[in-house]
C-alpha cells in the first residue's frame, strides 16, 4: 500500500507541476501568485492520510484560483488597452496657424450695430461722448478690457462697450459678410472686359482714383479681378488695381457737427438762390454764387444718380469739356443753364437737388471732373445707350 500511495502521489504532483507550468506560460504575472499556492497544496498532500482526496481538492481549488486570476488580468489588460486607444482618439487637434489676413485683424474690432456706437472718453457709461463708430467702421485696439475696450479710429480716441463689438477673426468675418470689397483703379484708361481675357470685348474704360465693387460671387481667374459695372460683371487686370474692404473710420463729435453745419449752409444758399415764378411759368435757376462742385454734383445726380460712379464722372466730364472747348459758355453755371441743353436744369430739378442735398458720390465725381478727370475721351454730349449712337458706352449712356 505504501508503494501504491507513493506512486499516486508522484502522478498527482507531476500533474500539478504540468498545470503550474502551463499557467506560468500563459501569463507570467500569475506565476508569483501560483507558487505559494503550490507549496500549500504540497503541505496538505503530505498531511493527507487516505488516498488522493487530500491532493485533488486543493489542486482543483488552485486551478480555479489561477484561471480566475488569469481572466482578471486579461480583463485589466483589455480595459487598459481600450483606455489608451480612447485617449489617443480624443487627442485635441492642433489648430492651424493664422493666415496673414487673420493676423492683421487680431488687433482690430468693428461695431456690430444698426447705426452707430458711441465712443466715450473713459470706460464708463456716464463718461463724455467723444465720437461715434458707424456701422462699417473699423478700429484699432489700444487695450482690451473685460467690459470696455480702448480704441483708436480716425481721429477718435476713446472707449467702447465690448458687448456691441466683434473682435479679431470674428471682426474680419463680419466685415467680409456684410460689406463690399472695392477695387481701386491705379492707372488711366484701364479697360473693363466682359471676359477675363486680354482680347475680350471692352465694356468701358476707367481712370485712376475710381473704385469699382468686386463681384465676389464671380469665377476667380488668376491675374484678373471681377467687378460690377453698369449692372453686369466684367474683369480688370489685377496688375492695375488694389482691393480692400470698403470700411470706414470713426468720426469725432466735432467733425460730425462741422459736417452738419456745412450741409445746412448749402441748403440755405440753395434756397436763397431760387427765383420765384410770377405771371408766366419761369424755370428755377441757381445763382452762380453756389459753388461749382455742388452745382455740378446736383446736375450729375439728376442725370446719372443711379448710374455707377464711372457714369457719374462721365457726365461731369462732358460739362467740363464744354467749358474748356470754346464752343460753349466758359463757366460751369452757364454751360449747365444753357437753354435746351440739360433738361433737369431747365425744369428746376437741379435747384431742388441742391436744396435737398447732393449725395457724396456725385460730389466726388464733380470734384474729379473739375480737377481734369475725363473718362469719355473728350466727349461733349451723351444720350441713352439704347439709342444706338456711336461712342463710348459707360453704364446706360453713350458719350460722344
Mean pLDDT: 77
Q: Topology as H/E string?
A: HHHHEEEEEEEHEEEEEEEEHHHHHHHEEE
> What does the radius of gyration come to?
44 Å
Question: What fraction, in percent, of the residue positions are helical?
Answer: 40-55%
Strand order of the largest sheet: 6-5-4-1-7
Number of helices: 12
N/C terminus separation: 137 Å
Task: State the major sheet.
Answer: 5 strands, antiparallel
Determine the structural class based on helices, strands and strand pairing. Answer: alpha+beta
CATH architecture of the largest domain: Orthogonal Bundle
The overall strand count is 18
Low-confidence stretches: 1-19, 26-35, 47-56, 274-289
Dominant shape: flat
CATH homology group of the largest domain: Cell wall hydrolase SleB, domain 1
Overview of the structural elements:
The protein is α+β, with helices and mostly antiparallel strands and 400 residues long. The chain folds into four domains: 2-89; 100-178, SH3 Domains (SH3 type barrels); 181-245, SH3 type barrels; 252-399, Arc Repressor Mutant, subunit A (Orthogonal Bundle). The protein contains twelve helices and 18 strands. It has helices at 2-26, 28-47, 53-89, 100-105, 168-178, 253-273, 292-304, 309-325, 332-336, 343-346, 349-356, 360-370, and strands spanning 108-111, 116-120, 129-134, 138-144, 148-153, 156-161, 165-167, 181-185, 190-193, 202-206, 211-214, 224-229, 232-237, 241-245, 251-252, 382-384, 392-394, 397-399. It has a five-stranded antiparallel β-sheet, covered by helices on one side. β4 (138-144) and β5 (148-153) form a beta hairpin. α6 (253-273) runs antiparallel to α11 (349-356) and α8 (309-325) packs parallel to α12. The termini are far apart. Mean pLDDT is 77; it is low at 1-19, 26-35, 47-56 and 274-289.
